[in-house]
Write a structure and sequence with these properties.
The complex is a heterodimer of chains A (about 600) and B (about 525). Helix content of chain A is about 70%, strand content about 5%. Chain A is mainly α and about 600 residues long. In chain A, the strands form 3 sheets. Chain A has a two-stranded antiparallel sheet with strand order 1-4. Chain A has a two-stranded antiparallel sheet with strand order 2-3. Chain A has a two-stranded antiparallel sheet with strand order 5-6. In chain A, a hairpin with a 6-residue loop joins β2 and β3. In chain A, α15 runs antiparallel to α16. The radius of gyration of chain A is 29 Å and the shape is globular. In chain B, about 70% of the residues lie in helices and about 5% in strands. Chain B is mostly helical and about 525 residues long. In chain B, the strands form 2 sheets. In chain B, strands 1, 2, 3 and 6 form a 4-stranded antiparallel sheet that branches. Classes of the chains: A mainly alpha (about 600), B mainly alpha (about 525).
């Protein structure tokens, strides 16, 4: 590594940067633009009229808005669950690629070299608009004397990494995620940040005193990191267990539902009711389902199965109009659906086993969701909803995708159908929805939709926005999926016809799996667009992540006010959105590679 | 009896019957659902005393708009027009600018130069992954943080920026601008003809005729002649339309009703004749299927319905509108007024240069101490316009750059090698071989991006730019008519989308490979 071939390096540089006079000119021009852009941004960020504490001090507001502090453990559990499942997934689906410590050290050294370079070219002065006169003036921001400690720390780290790179140590590439996550944890414990302190008269103390980060932030994050690593190791251990993988993938789908309906909400559950009604009903349904699965091949059962189904239909329909608890209605519907499917699927012992698992999982999920979702929450939040800030943004993004994806599949199938009326209606819906911008649909949700609802029915604004989002992104999903459907060669349909499949089987077993696989990249970019578009709800006055930074922080009153610090907050918001979307798009690229798309 | 039953059973097991039955049940259900909700809406609106009506289009809304055609609109219609024009202003200029920057960025991403490529890529990754709304808000915050106009009124000759917005030097329209514009279009047409003529000559006689040089010099000479007064020749059109306007004033409304009916009759006649003629030749001689009869009857029935409508109140209304005697939505809109307007704009007694280059002036607002940029001379972009424009253009340019890159990369390498082996220069290779093929791939996704740009302009509402959505919102806050405003949005955006996509489709068809 140390014997750098000087000649080769010069040649590479010459080829890449100075191959022709125009190229040379472009190199200098672009470098100049980039360096002055960096200097401008740096001067902008460090100028004394910027108060970055307006971001740091309001982190809680950003994340959960007005969620009560006494229930923060629920949010930590949510985040922790997310990290645990990420750790499990990273471990389970790791490819076994190896990397070495010296390579890692090289990466870190490159980053440090970059930081040293940036430190050296950083400006010493910046231009601000003076508050007194309103005229632009120059101020000192980052003198050379201030740089020496930073530079010496960086150089020290460089030496450490150089020494570490001598150790010959190989480890799995997927372990890198844990290391990268370890870096911010270390910073959490070592860093001291300025904090707003108020004196006896509720006035802000200047300059802001440096203080270590609060334990209530440090300790949960450290625990979360530790559980991430533990989950990763468990994942590696169970790497070859297929059932475990299936369980984790299903959990990824069910986890958000669980989080939003159960953990985040703190449902008020009547224990008496639970023991007297819900648990017996649940066990009853469970038994009926399992018994049906196990005795389906019995001669007598087979003979009377038609009557059983008919009875079930009548009971279910009746229950919908009767006054019984919701769990009974939902359970009956689920049981009916299941009983229709069972005879078509279960023949072998293996089929029966997997059916049982599916039955238990779906019944448990339904029961859980009903318990959590329908009960009133014990969390009292001033304002309309317990979701605010980043949690609202996530709610909109995840549930928007949840509801709109199936809708999109249905619309796409409808648009591709050979039945002219259904095709026309689906095309109409898709084109109507796509013809106007999202923001007009949001206005539809906030003002017009109430007109269409019958007397006495009222939805929360968030629910209305979710309904509209479902249709809007559903239409876009539908167009993407239609592209996937069109990419399937005609031979596939003909082959399916030739072995005597009906339309439903053909669609679900042959067409959709191939179509969805072909459009993974566009689907991910649609999800990213959905995540970004969720920021538009700020215009209709929901308290999402952007609204907090744009309106709430600037309007805080005494003792601390942050009027006129929009730019810092907007930059922070942009950074957070960027981190999430960038990571998502990079992950999807890797996923595509693994699926082998675009390689045939 | 049994036979009948089994027949009925067979009828219901028939695939065709089942198919249609399912569809009609679906359609019936859907219509019932829509009808149900409409009923609820009508009931609810009646309860709240804001019955559905279009009356607000004629009433004075009593609000002012920050910028645009009518800053103090006299009717709801004028207000919406202002919003629509503002939106179109951003859309059209934005499409041009985004295409320009996007192409440059796309080529930069293909550059061999390491730094250029990495810079373009990092710009792409930053802009693509941040919500557009955040970007627009950031541009707004950036402009608002500049010094105030009152303290900072020293600017350069070409450019000036303050917390009031951005001001530029701009060629301002004078009296003759409309005439010059028309003249300009005619010149372009003439130079195009010259080019084609020279190319034809080249192909026929095989000698170098320099078509490009010829047409370009024709354009320059004609434009120079036009700039110094030659544009007044267009005044002939104005003169003629003045006569037409006077002639049209004499015609009664009945004339338009009759004219439209005759047109409808003529078109249906032509369509039927075409269908008959298409069957007259070949093997299908004189054989009409039920479908053909059905089509012909439908055409005739539609024409008859149209003619009947023309003499019903609807037709009379249209005729009244075209005559333009009675004001509709507070102004006269008829055909005579239209031609009168043309003859006013194209008057050959107008003299002077059509455009003058001015810098926006900084004015005192009334007797207050506040200042603003003038609207009359120069060009000033308000904060809202600037922020929306910048946000939308950069965001779209990034996506266009991806399309350009993909388009150029999709042209197979053999094509450029073949071009090089023919001895083409690099510029000629790019112009004649690579770009025409790349453009063909690029156009459809590019059209999508233009549509996105048009829709994204609606985010101007967040920074106080009065485009059609913002104006509509103000309007329904004023009048309570949410449904009609929503319908207007829908119609307007659909029209814009359809227009844009038909333009793109036109070029798409034009550039398609002609296969044998």
């Amino acid at each position: 590594m140390m014997n750098i071939d000087l000649k080769k390096q010069t040649r590479v540089i010459k080829e890449n940067l100075f191959s022709s006079p125009v190229s040379t000119l472009l190199t200098f021009l672009t470098s100049y633009i980039m360096i002055s852009f960096f200097r401008g941004m740096f001067g902008f960020a460090t100028a004394p009229d910027k108060d970055w504490l307006s971001v740091l001090n309001n982190m809680q507001l950003y994340m959960v808005q007005a969620y009560p502090e006494s229930d923060f453990i629920r949010i930590w559990i949510c985040v922790g669950l997310g990290f645990i499942f990420s750790g499990l997934s990273v471990g389970l689906w790791e490819t076994g690629e190896k990397t070495s410590l010296s390579k890692l050290c090289l990466t870190f050294s490159k980053i440090i070299f970059g930081i040293i370079f940036l430190t050296l070219i950083a400006p010493t002065t910046s231009v601000i608009v003076s508050t007194a006169t309103g005229i632009r003036e120059q101020v000192d921001v980052f003198s050379y004397a201030e740089r020496i400690p930073l530079l010496s720390i960086l150089l020290g780290l460089l030496v450490v990494f150089f020494l570490l790179s001598k150790i010959n140590l190989n480890f799995n590439k997927s372990f890198l995620v844990s290391i990268y996550l370890f870096v911010p944890i270390v910073f959490l414990w070592l860093m001291k940040i300025p904090t707003i302190k108020l004196d006896a008269e509720n006035q802000r103390v200047f300059p802001d005193p440096l203080m270590p980060i609060a334990n209530s932030t440090k300790i949960p994050w450290t625990l979360i990191w530790m559980s991430f690593v533990a989950a990763y190791l468990i994942g590696i251990y169970f790497k070859n267990k297929k059932q475990f993988k299936t369980a984790v993938s299903i959990s990824w789908v069910l986890l958000p539902l669980l989080i939003f309906s159960w953990i985040f909400k703190k449902p008020l559950i009547d224990l008496n009711e639970l023991i007297r009604n819900d648990i017996p009903v649940f066990i009853g349904f469970l038994l009926v389902g399992v018994l049906t699965i196990y005795f389906i091949n019995n001669k007598i059962v087979e003979k009377f199965y038609g009557y059983y189904l008919g009875l079930l239909v009548i009971v279910t329909l009746a229950s919908l109009f009767l006054k019984v608890i919701l769990l009974v209605k939902a359970g009956l519907l689920l049981l009916l659906l299941f009983s229709v499917i069972i005879p078509a699927v279960s023949t072998s012992a293996k089929g029966k086993r997997s059916l049982t698992i599916v039955w238990i999982v779906s019944l448990t999920t339904t029961a859980f969701l009903l318990e959590g979702g329908t009960s009133t929450t014990q969390i009292v939040v001033p304002g309309s909803s317990i979701f605010g800030g980043f949690s609202l943004t996530w709610l909109l993004a995840i549930f928007g995708t949840y509801v709109s994806f199936p809708l999109g599949v249905l619309l796409a199938l409808g648009r591709n159908s050979s039945l002219p009326i259904i095709k026309g209606v689906c095309t109409g819906i898709i084109e109507l929805v796509r013809s106007v911008p999202y923001i007009t649909w949001l206005f539809f949700a906030s003002v017009t939709m109430a007109v269409f609802l019958p007397d006495g029915v009222e939805f929360n604004l968030i629910v209305r926005v979710l309904i509209v989002t479902a249709f809007f992104s559903g239409a876009y999903f539908a167009e993407n999926i239609r592209g996937g459907l069109q990419s399937i060669p005609k031979g596939q349909f003909e082959a399916a016809d030739a072995i005597g499949m009906n339309t439903v089987q053909k669609t679900s077993l042959i067409v959709l799996p191939q179509a969805l696989r072909a459009i993974v990249p566009t689907l991910v970019s649609s999800i990213i667009t959905g995540f970004k578009d969720s920021s538009l709800v700020t215009i209709i006055g929901l308290f999402d992540f952007l609204t907090i930074g744009r309106m709430v922080i600037g309007n805080q009153s005494i003792p601390i006010n942050f009027i006129g610090h929009d730019r810092e907050n907007l930059l922070f918001i942009a950074l957070v959105y960027w981190i999430f979307t960038f990571t998502l798009s990079r992950r999807s690229m890797k996923f595509e590679k693994r699926l082998g798309l675009g390689e045939r | 009896m049994v036979k009948l039953l089994s027949k009925i059973g067979a009828f219901f097991r028939n695939v065709v019957v089942l198919k249609w039955a399912v569809q009609f049940i679906f359609l019936g259900g859907l219509i019932a659902l829509i009808f149900n909700y409409l009923n609820i809406a009508v009931g609810n609106l009646a309860n709240t005393n804001i019955a559905f009506s279009w009356g607000f289009l004629g009433e004075t809304p009593g609000v002012s708009i920050a910028e645009g055609l009518y800053t103090l609109p006299k009717s709801g219609l004028q207000m919406l027009q202002t919003g629509m024009l503002n939106m179109l202003r951003i859309t059209v200029t934005g499409i041009v600018a985004a295409t320009f920057f996007g192409t440059i960025l796309g080529i930069a991403r293909l550059s061999n130069n390491y730094i250029v490529e990495k810079t373009a890529t990092s710009l792409l990754e930053v802009v693509r992954n941040v919500p557009l709304l955040v970007q627009i808000l950031f541009f707004q915050a950036l402009i608002l943080s500049l010094p105030r106009l009152e303290v900072y009124d020293v600017g350069s000759v070409l450019f000036h920026a303050s917390s009031k917005g951005v001001a530029l030097s701009w060629p301002n329209r004078q009296d003759g601008a409309w005439m010059f514009m028309l003249y300009f279009l005619i010149t372009i047409y003439i130079s195009n003809r010259v080019y084609k003529q020279r190319v034809k000559l080249l192909e026929e006689e095989g000698r170098e005729t320099k078509p490009f040089l010829w047409s370009f010099s024709a354009l320059i000479i004609l434009l120079a002649a036009g700039w110094f007064g030659g544009y007044r020749i267009v005044g002939i059109i104005g003169f003629v339309s003045g006569f037409i306007s006077q002639g049209l004033e004499l015609l009664p409304g009945l004339f338009y009703q009759a004219l439209l009916s005759i047109l409808a009759g003529y078109f249906s006649f032509r369509s039927v004749r075409k269908q008959i003629q298409s069957k007259r030749s070949g093997e299908l001689q004189g054989k009409y299927s039920d479908d053909d009869y059905f089509k012909m009857i439908i055409t005739i029935v539609i024409a008859l319905i149209f003619i009947a409508l023309m003499f019903a109140p609807v037709g009379q209304g249209i005729a009244k509108f075209l005559v333009g005697d009675e004001p509709t939505f507070k102004s006269d809109w008829g055909l005579p007024q239209f031609f009168g307007g043309i003859s006013n704009a194209l008057d050959w007694s107008i003299t002077g240069t059509p455009y003058e280059l001015n810098m926006a002036e900084i004015q005192q607002v009334g007797t207050t101490k506040f200042k603003r940029y003038s609207n009359e001379v120069g060009k000033s972009l308000t904060v809202g316009y600037f922020a929306t424009w910048m946000g939308v253009v950069i965001y779209t340019a990034i996506f266009i750059s991806e399309i350009v890159r993909a388009g150029i990369m999709a042209v197979s390498k053999g094509q450029s090698e073949a071009g090089l082996s023919l001895g083409l220069r690099r510029s000629a290779l790019l112009r004649l071989i690579v770009l025409p093929q790349a453009v063909r791939i690029m156009l459809p996704p590019m059209g999508n991006q233009y549509l996105n740009l048009a829709k994204n302009t609606s985010l101007g509402i967040a920074v106080g730019f009065p485009e059609v959505v913002a104006v509509g919102q103000t309007l329904y806050n004023q009048e309570g008519q949410t449904l009609p405003v929503f319908l207007i949005w829908m119609i307007f955006f659909s029209t814009v989308s359809l227009t844009l996509s038909s333009i793109v489709n036109y070029y798409n068809r034009k550039l398609k490979i002609v296969e044998r």
